[in-house]
Design brief:
The chain has 289 residues and is of the alpha/beta class. Helix content is 46%, strand content 14%.
C-alpha cells in the first residue's frame, strides 16, 4: 500500500485522497465513518481501501498502518483530536514500513504563540522529533475557507461579527494546500522539511468583508465585539467550547501580527502562484448570498 490518509473526510484530506486516486495511487483511508468515505470517494474510482479504525486503539492503528509507505495526517492539534494525533504519531514511529509521515500543521506553530492551535501543533512536532519519526510538515496560514464560518450571519444580516479588526494574514486556499500535500507525498526529494504556505498578499478581516461586498453587490460590515462576548456568541450558536476558545486565540494571534508575512512556497512547489482571496470568494460566493 503506497499511501494512508488520516483525516480523509476533512476539507484538505478529502482533496488529497481524490488527487492521489486521480494519479492512480493506492490509498488507504483510516476513518470513523466508512459510509461517509465511500460517499466521498467511490465515484472517483481507483485503488481505495477504506478502513474503520478507532484512533484510540493502539493495536488497531498498528494494523491499519501495516504495509503503508507514506502517511498523511490532517487532524486538529488540541483536545481529543490532538491526543489522538499523538497516538498516531507514536504508532507511525513504530511502523516498520513507513518511510515518511506528512503532517498538516499551521503557520507559526510554536510555544510562544497566542494561538492554541499553534501551541498544539508545536507540541506534536516536539513528540515526533523525540520519537525519531521521519516526517514533514505543511504549515499553511489561516485558510480562506475560515471565512465560511461567517456565511450565515452575512446572508441574514450583511454583517460579520469578530474580534480582529486589525492585524493581517495572507489567507491560504485549502485547494492549494491539498495540491502541495500531494506533490510532497509523491516526491521523496521534498521530504524532511517544514513548508510554510501563505496566500499571495496580506489582508485584514475588514479587507475581506469589503471584497465580499464587491462580489455580492451589497455592503457587508465587519463588527468588533469583546472576546468574551464572541466566545459566548459562538457557543450559543452551537460551536463546541474548546473550538470557540481556539478560534478566539487565533484572533489574538492575528491582532498581535503573528501572521504578517508571505512566502513563495506554493509557487515554488506547484509552479504557479497561489489562489487569491478573490478567487476563493468568487468560487464560494453562493454561501454568502
Amino acid at each position: 500500500m503506497a499511501f494512508a490518509v488520516i483525516g480523509a473526510t476533512g476539507r484538505v484530506g478529502s482533496l488529497v485522497v481524490k488527487h492521489l486516486l486521480g494519479f492512480h495511487e493506492a490509498v488507504r483511508v483510516l476513518v470513523r465513518d466508512p459510509g461517509k468515505a465511500h460517499r466521498l470517494f467511490d465515484a472517483v474510482g481507483g485503488d481505495l481501501d477504506v478502513r474503520a479504525v478507532p484512533l484510540d486503539d493502539r493495536s488497531a492503528i498498528d494494523a491499519a498502518l501495516e504495509g503503508v509507505r507514506v502517511a498523511f495526517i490532517a487532524m486538529g492539534s488540541v483536545g481529543l483530536e490532538g491526543n489522538l494525533q499523538r497516538l498516531i504519531v507514536d504508532a507511525a514511529a513504530r511502523s516498520p514500513s513507513l518511510e515518511q509521515v506528512v503532517r498538516l500543521s499551521v503557520l507559526n506553530s510554536g510555544p510562544s504563540s497566542l494561538g492554541l492551535n499553534q501551541q498544539g501543533h508545536w507540541s506534536i512536532d516536539f513528540a515526533a522529533e523525540a520519537l525519531g519519526l521521519p516526517y514533514t510538515t505543511i504549515r499553511p496560514s489561516v485558510f480562506s475557507a475560515s471565512v465560511l464560518a461567517a456565511a450565515a450571519e452575512i446572508r441574514s444580516e450583511r454583517t460579520w461579527t469578530g474580534l480582529a479588526d486589525t492585524g493581517r494574514v495572507a489567507l491560504c486556499d485549502h485547494r492549494d494546500v491539498a495540491e502541495v500535500a500531494v506533490r510532497i507525498l509523491r516526491d521523496s526529494t521534498t521530504w524532511g522539511t517544514h513548508y510554510d504556505l501563505t496566500g499571495p498578499r496580506l489582508v485584514s478581516w475588514p479587507d475581506v468583508a469589503a471584497l465580499i461586498s464587491v462580489e455580492l453587490g451589497a455592503s457587508v460590515e465587519f463588527r468588533v465585539i469583546p472576546d468574551r462576548t464572541l466566545v459566548y456568541r459562538m457557543i450559543d450558536a452551537g460551536v463546541p467550547p474548546s473550538k470557540a476558545e481556539l478560534l478566539v486565540t487565533r484572533e489574538w494571534a492575528i491582532l498581535r501580527g503573528e501572521n504578517e508575512h508571505t512566502t513563495e512556497t506554493i509557487s515554488e512547489l506547484l509552479g504557479r502562484p497561489p489562489r487569491t482571496v478573490e478567487k476563493f470568494l468568487r468560487d464560494y460566493i453562493d454561501y454568502f448570498r
